[in-house]
Specification:
Distance between the termini: 26 Å
Strand content: 35-45%
Largest sheet: 8 strands, parallel
Shape: globular
Helix content: 10-25%
Number of strands: 49
Mean pLDDT: 93
Strand order of the largest sheet: 24-33-32-31-30-27-26-25
Length: 779
């Protein structure tokens, strides 16, 4: 069958190219009840908590969980309290069970009531928490849950999306349960053994000591059981305890996890207690990540890797990170040559970590301690320790997580004539170069690095600095001794700054956690500056630099200074809707791609292809194993006439050019030659197909640049100017039937009800503009 060329098409009319909202989740586990879905909602900073508890909830608005209220028209700019209410029934089969209410994340501070009783509070918007409600629930009638979320606390330039942003679940367990299981599987390439350590946290809710049986089963990627370990554990009354199962296996009998070959195993643990059985399941990878000298090693190979910062942000989804969005973004980042980064200033969503595990994207995760004025940057802060523990306890088994960062860009202005940090009354010369870390900030970072050692000794430690290259930094006031690699952020003069950092703090590898040079803009002509391109070229020559992460992959909503009229900071190679900025996109794909070049020429009906590998001193630099070269031939109508693939040999950094010749079939004037990764991702290509025919790109100068249906609403994304303050929309089910009207003062995005499967057509204007072109979306 002939195939028409439509690869990675991004078109406003094709809904399938855009991620869809999470569907309501109903767990198949009889010991779990998902509370995702519709909740009652009230946004108010004036109503008292006492009045909320006695409200007529049927009069409240409706909102979906997980979600953010800021994605809804009425609450798009609401800062403060949002109240959620839902009634739940306890399954009759849970009569003898311990029952818990778990929130995977609520931004940012929260209070939870059950049947009018305050269960507790939680501070921190990205990590899970739970309450034991066994003695508080009604077994024979509905229970009322009320949640107060408050998004007033804000760090950084990203939007503080408010609300219940992750799953909410009722859990049932026996009186003794597994709280978590943590598995590490570290290969030793000298002894050729893998050290397995499985640690369990067990909790007892009974008044006497009990013995339980643990059965741990490990399955390979094809779901074959490959080993079983058993352990008996005695746990004291009403307490928690930890138990460990340790053993060794030969490296040769397992497949190692790698960013090009992310092989995952599965740990199934069954806890047997009396007649109760609890099954806990986690996937994990076997890999060794370490720093040796001034290099990063993965599985005994020195690697140099690049990546992106990615802000957890989308106008339609907020920071909820639905799987479809995560899959789209990370796959596209991988296609640009990205394999490693400190992606965001906050703990990542479980959906993102799970997908990164499966596709081989390596992450450093970070807690949200950011900036010179962060109030949480002081030594042994119990709150930031709690954030670290909640993050590490949750993320321990993810193979993609290879390290932790304890903060980003801490520093303060100092006195002009010495390096004493300001106490508040003095006057400093507020120049960027006149900054260094304060003793409190320095103490904070070191105390958090020490605390990581108490929680996880299997991963790397770092801190993202913007003071290491400044005049006042030195050993003793800059984070250095306790990190495994140095992380620096630069927005100009990257080469000079990293050279200064290395001179002051030698002997450790350096990664650019952020590298950039001004916002790119929101047009199809957006490009990286020449200065940044030169920096990215020159840092490759420095052997102690093992990679960089461009700020950023995506544009993101913000009210930070310098944000354009759209309300979106335009640093990304894609916009907030994931429309490509084609020129910048192509630039970074060339810089970050796994090969130096791929070229092709037609000579006498033969296509001569040359693949030029990266040199050892280039960035990125790593061994290419099981890559393919795929070639397609097309007719004048761009119909696929022939398609084949050949497996490439192992390509080491510094290898010689590889040359191939393909016979061009008759009546196929067009070709496309692609380098395909072991994961099936197109990494780069060369083609003679006319520009614009291969991939359709959304014109970012259009007034309406995005249409998407979520449940019974249409999400509209549109361009705005600084002067515009109000917008009018006409819409209907055909171009000639725009009978409905809608008005809004929201800039950049809005939702319009559309509870039908009919096609949706729309045009818009502002108080200063004419009507736009009509755009449409098909069901």
């Amino acid at each position: 069958m002939k195939k028409f060329l439509s690869i990675f098409t991004l078109c406003i009319f094709i809904v399938s190219c855009k991620p869809s909202m999470n569907s309501d989740e109903t767990s198949l586990n009889p010991n779990e009840v998902s509370l995702n879905g519709e909740w009652n909602f009230l946004a108010s900073n004036t109503v008292s908590e006492a009045k909320v508890l006695k409200s007529e909830f049927k009069n409240w608005d409706k909102i979906y969980v997980p979600g953010n209220w800021d994605t809804e028209n009425a609450y798009a700019n609401h800062v403060g309290n949002g109240y959620y209410q839902k009634e739940v029934n306890i399954p009759k089969s849970w009569e003898s069970k311990q029952i818990r209410l778990r929130f995977d994340a609520v931004y940012e501070t929260s209070k939870v009531w059950l049947n009018g009783e305050l269960l507790g509070e939680h501070k921190g918007g990205y990590t899970p928490f739970e309450f034991n409600i066994t003695d508080k629930v009604f077994r024979d009638k509905p229970n009322t849950i009320i949640v107060q979320a408050n998004n007033s606390y804000k760090r950084g330039a990203w939007w503080a999306w408010g609300g219940i942003s992750r799953n909410v679940t009722l859990l049932a367990n026996a009186d003794v349960r597994v709280v978590w299981q943590h598995i590490s599987a570290q290969p030793n390439f000298k002894t050729k053994k893998i050290a397995f350590d499985i640690k369990y946290k067990l909790e007892s809710n009974v008044s006497e000591s009990k013995s339980v049986q643990i059965e741990a089963n490990i399955y390979d990627s094809k779901n074959n059981k490959i080993l079983t370990k058993n352990k008996e554990v005695t746990i004291s009354a009403n307490s928690t305890t930890e138990a460990v199962i340790s053993f060794e296996k030969d490296v040769s009998t397992f497949d190692l996890w790698h960013f090009d070959s992310p092989i995952l195993y599965q740990l199934n643990t069954q806890l047997n207690y009396q007649n109760n059985k609890q099954l806990v399941v986690d996937k994990f990878g076997i890999r060794k990540v370490e720093t040796i000298g001034e290099q990063l090693f993965l599985n005994n190979e020195a690697v140099r890797l690049n990546g992106f910062n990615r802000v957890h942000d989308h106008p339609a989804y907020g920071n909820t990170e639905p799987y479809e969005l995560v899959k789209h973004d990370i796959t596209e980042m991988k296609s640009l040559g990205a394999n490693f980064s400190r992606m965001m200033h906050a703990p990542a969503a479980p959906s993102l970590l799970k997908f990164c595990d499966s596709i081989g994207y390596m992450l450093v995760t970070e807690i949200p301690v950011w900036g010179s004025d962060d109030p949480n940057a002081f030594t042994h802060n119990p709150l930031t320790k709690k954030w670290l523990k909640e993050m590490i306890d949750r993320d321990y088994n993810h193979a993609s997580v290879i390290g932790y960062s304890v903060g980003n860009e801490l520093g303060a202005y100092v006195l002009k004539k010495n390096t004493k940090p300001l106490t508040g009354s003095e006057t400093a010369v507020k120049k960027w170069t006149n900054k260094t870390m304060t003793p409190k900030q320095y103490g904070y970072a070191n105390s958090m690095l020490d605390y990581i050692d108490e929680l996880d000794t299997t991963r790397l430690k770092t801190f993202a600095s913007y003071t290491s290259y400044l005049p006042n930094s030195k050993i003793g006031n800059e984070v250095y001794e306790k990190v495994d690699f140095l992380s620096i952020n630069t927005y100009g003069d990257a080469v000079k700054k990293v050279q200064t950092t290395h001179k002051k703090f030698p002997g450790k590898p350096i990664f650019f956690t952020e590298i950039g040079k001004g916002q790119l803009g929101e047009s199809n002509d957006a490009v990286f500056s020449d200065a940044l391109l030169e920096d990215l070229k020159e840092i490759q020559k420095l052997p102690y630099v093992f990679g960089s992460a461009v700020w950023t992959y995506n544009d993101y909503r913000s009210n930070y200074k310098g944000t354009p009229a759209s309300g979106n900071r335009a640093w990304g190679v894609v916009d907030v809707w994931r429309n490509k900025k084609p020129k910048a996109f192509a630039q970074v794909q060339k810089i970050y791609g796994p090969v130096h070049d791929l070229t092709a020429k037609i000579i006498n009906n033969k296509i001569n292809v040359v693949l030029s590998p990266r040199k050892k001193e280039e960035l990125p630099s790593y061994t290419l194993n099981k890559y393919h070269l795929k070639y397609n031939f097309y007719t004048k109508k761009l119909e696929s006439n022939s398609q084949k693939a050949i497996e490439l040999p192992v390509i080491e950094p510094g290898a010689k050019e590889l040359k191939f010749t393909f016979q061009q079939p008759k009546e196929t004037p067009f070709y496309k030659i692609s380098l395909i990764s072991p994961l099936g991702i197109e990494m780069t290509s060369v083609s003679n197909i006319p520009s614009g025919e291969l991939n359709k790109i959304q014109d970012l100068s259009d007034r309406i640049i995005h249409l998407q249906k979520i449940r019974n609403q249409i999400v509209i994304g549109y361009n705005v100017s600084k002067e515009e303050t109000s917008f009018t929309f006409k819409y209907g089910n055909s171009k000639t039937n725009l009978t409905e009207n809608f008005a809004s003062d929201l800039k950049g995005f809005v939702k319009i009800p559309w509870n039908t499967k009919e096609a949706f057509y729309i045009k818009m204007k502002s108080e200063t503009s004419e009507w736009s072109k009509v755009k449409n979306i098909q069901e």
